[in-house]
Write a structure and sequence with these properties.
By secondary structure, the chain is of the alpha+beta class. It is 29% helix and 22% strand. It has a three-stranded antiparallel beta sheet with strand order 3-2-5. Strands 1-4 form a two-stranded antiparallel sheet.
């Protein structure tokens, strides 16, 4: 998945270690899901996110993006229903970075961390 990225956002992404964003697609789920940023050096003006189709949210997101790609090839018309369907609204909350939240957490006497799915990866070092 690739989004247009502002210069300020690119500077933030490149200055931080392990940046990630949170995505919400209201037509699929009202929850926010974290995704690691996978932009390359030559992705000027682009925010690239790579995800695995696994579980409810990513499976439905992948399906909806595949439908959108197919509809784009067919002039915006869904070949199954014959109806023009608008692209999904994808909300992006960015940028979050590994070291910043960790440093902030260690400033407290007690910290409770709850993770699940692929989001557990940064917590494996504990």
């Amino acid at each position: 998945m690739v989004f247009t990225q502002t210069n300020a956002a690119r500077d933030i992404e490149r200055s931080r270690v392990a940046p990630y964003v949170r995505l919400c697609v209201p037509s699929i789920s009202l929850l926010w899901y974290p995704f690691t940023v996978a932009s390359k050096q030559d992705d000027v003006g682009k925010l690239r996110i790579i995800f695995r189709k696994y579980g409810y949210f990513t499976s439905n997101l992948w399906k909806r993006l595949q439908e959108e790609e197919e509809e784009g090839r067919n002039g915006g018309i869904n070949t199954t229903t014959g109806v023009v369907k608008p692209p999904p609204t994808i909300l992006v909350d960015a940028y979050y970075c590994g070291p910043d939240w960790l440093t902030s957490a260690f400033q407290h006497d007690v910290v409770m961390m709850i993770t699940g799915g692929i989001g557990v990866t940064p917590f494996l070092c504990f």
